[in-house]
Structure formats: structure tokens, C-alpha cells
Amino acid sequence: MTRAAKAGWAVLMGAGAGLAGLGFLVSAGFSARDEPTAVEAFVARRLRNFSIPSAHRDARNPVALTPAVLARARAHFADHCASCHGNDGRGQTTLGRNLYPKAPDMLLSDTQALPDGHLFWIIKNGVRLTGMPAWGEDTPADDETTWELVHFIRHLPKLTPEELAEMREFNPRGRRDWEAAEAERRFLEGGDIAPAPPSSHAGH
Amino acid sequence: MRKAVAVLSWIALFAAAGNVQAHEGHQHKVMGTVAQVHVEKVAHVEVKTTEGKTVILTCDDKTQFMKGKSAATLKDVVAGVRVVATTVEEGKTIRAVEVQVGEMDAAKPAADPHKH
Predict the structure, then answer these.
(1) Domain coordinates of chain A in residue numbers?
(2) Residue B37 and residue A185: Cα distance in Å, rounded?
(3) Is B28 close to A201, i.e. CB distance below 8 A?
(4) N or C: which end of chain B has fewer CB within 10 A?
(5) ipTM exceeds 0.85
(6) Collapsing DSSP states into helix, strand and coil, what is residue B99?
(7) Could you report the per-residue pLDDT of A86-112, keeping only the tens digit for each?
(8) CA of A186: which chain B residue's CA is closest?
(9) In the Cβ-directed half-sphere of B88, how many Cα atoms lie within 13 Å?
(10) Interface of B with A in 39-58 (CB under 8 A)
(11) 3-state DSSP call for residue A15?
(12) Where are the domains of chain B?
């Protein structure tokens, strides 16, 4: 077989695969519920790493870790981040589980092994083509808050049930959520057996 | 031509790999009284809900148990106790993400707390 013929076959096979893929797309469609494939995850992680300037990647956290810093970061995380990531950082929320890609389990090494500067950059600048927005403005005050959150992410594997309970008070809630939470509290304490109907979705 | 082949191949790769391990949707709350607890590799907690339905919750090592603002464990989940669970549906399984453990239901005294 000549070189030109081989090239022709390669083109034909590629086109066939592409058409098969297009056919599948048309019939099945895409859903954000799907788990990203290993190829997508690999490519996306590499692209995310490329998005962080090398000078920032290995930056050390300049904020000293104190109980007050952790308390502020817990409250901030519960208010701003837990809707997707969950108070415990495992991403097991309605939003987190149905994003594409999913909110990660931040207790795992995929997150915990990232350098401080890497985490800081992701929080401040977000990650393109994912659900992670850019949170921080380019101000010293915002940077400090972001570094505090980096401390909190490091603390996630050691989060205590008491801290989790405290964080729940800072989760954003609407009136219906407050009523449902109150009904649940009454029920757990032995009150009315038929309390007001809770929110059908667990919310944040 | 090479570019076209590359693009088509990528489309094929991504499309063929879709619909893998689809996740189920929303979190829900289950409020009720524990009827039975079966502990095997994972725990199955049978809850009689306030609406009169029976729901079986799967508790795994990621399930968090709380009693008020303190930590609790699966051992606190016994027949007759009131619970409010945050759950997710995974296929035919209802997995408990968090279980809030409350007081013993006055209408149902504790008995046979853990069936093994």
C-alpha cells in the first residue's frame, strides 16, 4: 500500500469515528450529571496547572495560623463555599455533585497535595470552564481572606463535629429553610410528630 | 485535513465516553423514627417517616452522625429514636449523607436496637 493510500485510509477511519461520535451525540446528548472521563480529567488538570503563573504556584501562606483565623475562615467557607463544596469539603451537595466537573472531595490528596499558592490562585481566580468562580478582588484585604481559606482547606481533614455544627449556622438559608430547620429541631427534641413540611431539597 | 481528523476523533472519544457513572440528583430530607438497623458491610437503617412511609437508608463510612451539636455514631441510631437524615439517591439506593439523631420516640420504646 502506498503512503498516499495509507493516509487516505487513516482519514477515512478518523472521519468514520467522528461521524459515529456525532451520531451518538445526536441520539444521547450530554449531561452534566456524567462523570468526566479520565482523559478529560487529565487534560483539565494539566490546563488548570498551566493557568497558574509559576511565580505564584509555590507561594507560601503569609497569614499566621491562629484559632481566630480558622474561625473566620470556617464562617466564610460556610457562607460562600459550602453550597457547592459542603461544610466538610467533600462536595456532597446537590450543586457539587451535579456540576461538570464535580466539586472535588477536598480531603483527598488531589487537593491536599497542592501547594498553598496553587490553592490561593484557584480561590482567587477560579477555574475556567468549571463551576469554580473567581472570588477574590485584587486587594490586600481580599488576599488575606483567601489565604485564611487556604488554612481552612488544610484543616478540613481535622474538622470536628462541633465545628461542623457551628458552620451550619452560617450556611445561607431562605425563610423556608429556616422554618424547615426549626421543624426538624422540634421533631428531634420529641415535639410534634407532624411538623411543618420540610424543604423538599436539603439545600446547602 | 489533519485538523479535521483530529477534531472528529476528539468528538468520538468524548461522545463515546459519555453517560458513565451518572449521578442522581437532589439531596432530600428523611424525617422519621428508626424501625430497625441492620449492620453488615454497610449499615441499613429502616426509618418510618412522619408521612407513614418506610424508607431504608444506607449508611457508609462517609455518613456523618450528629446529636445536637455533638458527634454521634451509628451506635446512637437505635430502634425508636427520631432521626432527620440528609440523603441522596444513588440508583436504587438511598444513601445517608448526614443523620441527625434525636430523642427516643415516646410512641415506640427501644427494642432490638441493632440487628446483625
Answers:
(1) 52-174
(2) 23
(3) yes
(4) C
(5) no
(6) strand
(7) 999 999 898 999 999 999 999 999 999
(8) B102
(9) 19
(10) 50
(11) helix
(12) 24-104
Three-class DSSP category at B23 = coil
* Helix/strand number for chain B, H first, E second: 1, 7
| Exposure string for A12-29, b = 16+ CB within 10 A, e = fewer | eebbebbeebeebbeeee
**The dihedral of CA A178, B86, B72, A84: what is its sign?**
negative
Provide the pLDDT confidence category of residue A188 given band limits of 50, 70 and 90.
very high
Q: Looking up cell 458527634, which residue turns up?
A: B71
Decide if A113 contacts A120 (C-beta within 8 A).
Answer: no
| Distance of alpha carbon A41 from alpha carbon A18, whole angstroms | 21
Q: In terms of CATH architecture, what is A52-174?
A: Orthogonal Bundle (1.10)
Closest in A19, A24, A165 to B69, CB measured? A165
Give A122: exposed, middle or buried? Use CB within 10 Å, 0-12, 13-18, 19+. Answer: buried
pLDDT digits (tens, 9 = 90+) for A30-77: 888 888 989 988 999 888 988 899 889 889 999 999 999 999 999 999
Question: Quick count: other Cβ atoms within 10 Å of Cβ A109?
Answer: 7
Q: What is the pLDDT of residues A121-170, one digit of tens each?
A: 999 999 999 999 999 888 999 999 999 999 999 999 999 988 998 999 89
Nearest Cα to Cα of residue B99 among B110, B112, B88:
B88
Class of domain B24-104: mainly beta
Kindly state the percentage of chain B with pLDDT values over 70.
70
Of A22, A37, A203, Cβ closest to residue B17: A37
